[in-house]
């Protein structure tokens, strides 16, 4: 394990350093690797399958024990391509396979194993072994191997093999046909024609030779140039294709389990040194360019080198040449070039980055949306109030379509005064179609964080979306800065989070036709003059026609002190307010500076305001405006008074929500709650009050008030507002509730859709406690580490499951459609899975031909599955979504059938389904996003799915990945039973009620495993029992490998019980499952006031064990060793990060059916035990009949413990006499503890055929297969559309 960690440590250190050399280079001459830590159950084929995902395996040597023949747990493998060894070592070292950690390392000098001669002597191997080299098929007969049919080799495992062979035969036949046609085409030519033809052929050949010579000369120039730059290994026999470097292939192989921010964030470490075109001096760039154009397409090798190098991320070092290198890269490229910045890297600029050609892009590799985005810092000189202020400039005349994506820009203003110059980001100009998205811009040196300029009033169609803006400027007089400033017509500003701007949050300089929606503007630590400003007359002469500002959220200051009981308002330590939420008209802002000029033509509607303002909306000097349906929500305050900058002639109106100067507004439509004011000039001159209880509670940052000079990260601070006042959150009912097939006891799956500034930690650390405090809420428990993170709760008796999906949006509109695939961009896999339930439910309803028939049929099937105890995704059966998709598939096959016909065909078709053929409601769709799509040809884990049912939405996922071999057998048997019953129902020999007969789980098996999870706290018990239940599937999978065990059948729910104990001995007994009648009858009031007394909460789960029948002729008892799987299971559950051995208990023990507690049976269900007749000569103590398991009480040996619960694995052995033994011997059930070596003795059992239940071997002739009605073809029914 130390070697495994050391290799990983070296790799991590190498990635952080970003060096061009690698420790892997020391092993470049060996294609062998060592693989240790292999599970001894793995075969050579299994190992080849695991390691072949990184290259073709040519040889494998897996040493085996000479006596037993079992593998020793390690192997040596040889790859066809040496570079594959690097991929294998980097990706598989430290990986877990079958619960064992692999050690994968290079082998410097591999020695071939010796071979045994004819006389038994050992010899050194004379030839290289290629025992794993795949068979290559080039045809199906001798003729196909001729030179005429030679072509690419075909792997026999290629799924396209048959098709490729057929195409090859067709091409061969066509070639023969054309050759036979051409044999006599020159027979009639004259001698002159023949000489001319040969001359043309000779000239063509000479031209080809000259081109080849020119190519060689060009390549020599390239190699010479690279060598002069410090390249190495150039021109050697071993070449490396830059487009397939180990690093690139390594990134690809990791993509299914590594977030995008790390997939492509490693600088190239190829054998030829990484030389980016942008990092070359101008002379070298010119030489490369001239060489490239000199022989153009004649040198594809050079083209590959050139493209590969400029596609790697730009290095920030050396910093003194960084800006020049970046701008050279943009200027020396062309249309569509992507300048990639390295994740988690800081770039110190001395001058602006300048876009140069249309459709260029600047972005971080992998497009992350968190703090791993590359950070560009404005770091150039400043003197006398002027200097470097802009990081990125996209205003060139050829900059249409340029994109700035997924980076961070730090203006690095610090405590300095404003600098004259441009914004952090300057875009627009005489261009169209520019995009700025997922950018974080903060601390600008000048007047704005982001500016889109108007050009010659011809800028058009900019998109500003999903950005994090702020803080911008400081609220000291005339040191303000805007968040987003737009003067470009027909643009879109949406889904942005603007935090702590100080001048205007979003400022529109006219910009006719622009849409501004779903943005959030929040004044956290600094006073904001205006949230959204439509006040500037220039440069569009007040033209705001077709501008629509809607569905934005503007948040003023909130109280930062703690609220006392009954308080609604308090103090804000920074005196933070928003002076005007939305300002309309020049006079509102500038007074009479522009005379009587007015703005015209805009619409402001459905915007929301909360917090402290002077005015929510102020409307002056405007015409043809529409202002409607804007609202206040939660707590608001309207405060402020005249400040020293107010004109002596102005009458500052009293702060109010919506104010209008009727004297300067004309031809406009406004909502009814506007207050008329006499003078609307220069409303921004008001000042917030100096302290006092004026600020509302309900969404502020509490006592957390970070300084404005910070990074601007808002995840933690926004949690309070995001969850406290529930802005921008959409709760969506999913699955059963959405499909409308819920019944009594059904839980409601609820998806909580949150904006990007609310993290998953906020969901569990803020929302879960809020839910726990909610009136009527009980049993609240969060499981953040689950495959789909979830909070379960019971509210007023209704069970609810809360899932959380964090979208890359600043706000969540109430009319959001989750079916939009673009919502999956820049979110993690757990959020994709959380969204899946709602998306799948909607897709199912769209794909079924008759929704009502589908609902009726599904309600029937779900009731059947619940009654038969096969409805539980966590235990390896089908969940609600899977059952819905199965029923939907039958509805598709029979679009005109009624519900009864759907149900009957459901059982017949599902029983005959050819698993693992997947169930598909539609063909699987590929998409552009970096998410995993179910593909068994590509992913080994997908190939392991036993009963795949694939979701109909992108990305396609398997809803039944939890199914095990045992649960597949059980589910298939239930399909068979259902099919038999509906057959009888159709002919009138049975009723539908028989289909819903309760399961017989607790009557079916002779032996059971009892898993008991216990704690002393009700809330803790919910989480602990849920953790144990989620791991039972792993126990089942381990039990399936036990010899003589046919299957392990998990029951679908646990049994909760509260026992009131008055001593440590009783606590230990209850934790072990031994609850005496005295303890069972004791009530809570019986222990009140007694020292040391308290409740013990237990949840008991059961796994039925079906043991193989005893083989004819075998004698004596057999041993069923389940010590390994049970021990590993207890280790697994104790690995839970919150496990505390002093407060949590876990016990696994074997019991017989006669020892099952009464609480697993319904009243009257348990049959009384019949009295046993003693056979002649039998002992009175005999109780060993296979039909009557021993009824003696199981005794457990429990060591004393001072803790509440001392978890200990207990396996009770029962030695039962053979059924055909001539002598009867009494059995004594005893408890066993671990041996000296820590293992638990095996279980000795002699089962009978009845223990196998429905799974006992049957004569195939006795099995009647259910059939579809006459004329229906099962093969067609089970096919995929």
UniProtKB/TrEMBL annotation:
Alphabetized PROSITE patterns for the sequence: RRM (PS50102)
Question: Compositional bias of type Low complexity: which residue ranges?
Answer: 1226-1237
Residue ranges with Polar residues bias = 1178-1188
User: Recorded GO terms, molecular function?
Assistant: ATP binding; metal ion binding; poly(A) RNA polymerase activity; RNA binding
UniProt keyword terms in alphabetical order: ATP-binding, Magnesium, Manganese, Membrane, Metal-binding, mRNA processing, Nucleotide-binding, Nucleus, RNA-binding, Transferase, Transmembrane, Transmembrane helix
Q: Does the keyword DNA damage apply?
A: no
Biased-composition ranges for Basic and acidic residues? 115-126, 186-195, 211-226
Swiss-Prot/TrEMBL cofactor(s): Mg(2+); Mn(2+)
Q: Which GO terms describe its biological process?
A: mRNA splicing, via spliceosome; RNA 3'-end processing
Chain intervals with Basic residues compositional bias: 174-185, 196-210
List all membrane-crossing ranges. 719-739, 869-887
Signal peptide range equals none
* Region described as Disordered: spans on this chain: 109-159, 171-269, 1155-1197, 1219-1281
The EC number(s) attached to this protein equal: 2.7.7.19
- Pfam name, any one: Beta_helix
Where it sits in the cell: the answer is: Nucleus
Q: Which GO terms describe its cellular component?
A: nucleus
Membrane in keyword set: yes
* Domain RRM intervals: 31-109
UniProt family annotation: Belongs to the poly(A) polymerase family.
Name this protein carries in UniProt: polynucleotide adenylyltransferase
